[in-house]
From TrEMBL:
Name of the protein: Proline--tRNA ligase
Organism name: Leuconostoc fallax
Reactions mediated catalytically: tRNA(Pro) + L-proline + ATP = L-prolyl-tRNA(Pro) + AMP + diphosphate
GO biological process, one term: prolyl-tRNA aminoacylation
Family classification: Belongs to the class-II aminoacyl-tRNA synthetase family. ProS type 1 subfamily.
Record's keyword annotation contains Ligase: yes
Annotated SUPFAM superfamilies: Class II aaRS ABD-related, Class II aaRS and biotin synthetases, YbaK/ProRS associated domain
Quaternary structure annotation from Swiss-Prot or TrEMBL: Homodimer.
NCBIfam families: PRK09194.1 (NF006625), proS_fam_II (TIGR00409)
Amino acid sequence: MKQSKLLMPTLREVPADAEVRSHALLLKAGYIRPVAAGMFSYLPLAQRVLNKIEAIVREEMAKIDANEMSVPEILPAELWQESGRYATYGPALYKFKNRQNRDFILGPTHEETFTQLMRDDIKSYKKLPLLVYQIQAKFRDENRPRFGLLRTREFIMKDAYSFSADQEGLDDAYRAMEQAYTNIFDRVGLTYRAIVGDAGAMGGSDSKEFSAPADAGEDIIAYSDATDYAANLEMAKDFYERQTSDEAPLDLVTLETPNVKSIEELAEFIDQPATELVKTMLFMADENQPVAVVVRGDFEVNDVKVQNFLKADSLELATDEQAAAVLGAHFGSLGPVGLPENVRLLVDERAADMANFTAGANHDDQHLSHINWQRDVTLPEENVGDFRVAREGDLSVDGKGKLVFTKGIEIGHIFKLGTRYSEALGAQVLDKNGRQTDMIMGSYGIGISRLLSAISEQKADEDGLVWPTSVAPFDVHIVPINLKDTEQARVTRQLESEFLAQGLEVLVDDRKERAGVKFADADLIGLPIRITVGKKAEEDIVEVKVRASNTNIEMRVSEVVDSVAVLLHDEN
């Protein structure tokens, strides 16, 4: 393709609103343009990358017999009302009415849609298992879209769903999809980790995320420095063995603690370390169920673990006003003693093993010291669990290394849904015994457009983007210095023709620009191989630059095509 015919509006200055490298470079190199906050146009270079990513996805999906199809992006609200998610998904759900005043949504994901399809068309276990997928735009009304393509309101996603008649079928589909995702991320050239993740609003269990380490990542990956354990911080666990305290119970004491609102202030006020104090946080589960969660004073409550333990559709930190109404005190003075019957108590295992500890008295400006479980607070064992946020440097849950934190970009997510949606929507088949049984589901997603940013974050350098050969917009960038020169024009045409005959995609910079401008743009857009055709063309010599390593090699024209084929293969 001639560069003069390519829509590639490069910028000389980095846009002021570009907070991360990938956003700045994709804008500067003419790959994307914003239309509204969190909504982008994909210009020709970006579209070519997306096409190649999607082709890789389709190839790997075909290997596991997944069926590609498409369902509507606009969905009737009653479908989500059937599953219960219309009320619980939250403000990120785009809702609107049509001219007949019927409620609709823009699809953020499509579990309900595919479940309805299977419910209506699949009646026997003999038709299962089935894997179906689509590549489509999704819509989520992010409160604060940011970081370019990393957090947007409209994005391109590959979402897949498995339907099985039994648990074995689900397990097989899950393993097949995990291997397919591994192949996809290997082929697009990313460094990544498969980590324990949270299923979030999708529901389900056995959740695994694929995360690409990058400074721009909004997720924190916690991993062991000695083993292959890795998890999203929301799900990360440290190592702890339960133990029984041998301290003799002391008499309960009420302490006056005026204006003491935090653990740090309490520790200083009563001259006790945070490890001898407990922190009590009040949450509202599914809007109206109060839940008090207790952790040791030097830890923070992990609300994701709490929500998963409760199997709640929603969990919000109570307001100060709600705390006063439910417990009779504001945050800073809350504790586990004397909770009302309607308040569910959850205690982190580290706090559950404490004795003679100090906590809020559920009376403003008062705390209780020398609290002991069972004597002062009834604590059933089923209310004890891991409800804390893991900390960097603590022992990993496998006991064989310390936790290390790094930022990461979530690029894929797989999880077992079980019967969460099939039960709600009545998707059943006759099993081998002739009985009706709920289909067992899995859900699997890849952020296709997000991969543009993830690859850019990991591969780019100070000069611009650096695309792996597998997804680069073009394989070879031919940059003649002066096409008015007969020999340069001849060599350019010869190389272009030979590369095209080899099935390579070629971009020829035929613009009437200075050499410096051409070189800067070539580095900026980041094609794997650049061939400069200059004054030595009359000697049949050109310069070949490998973008990833920024190495330059002078080469005879007769050697170029074969050598470039080897270089491109080595870059994959």
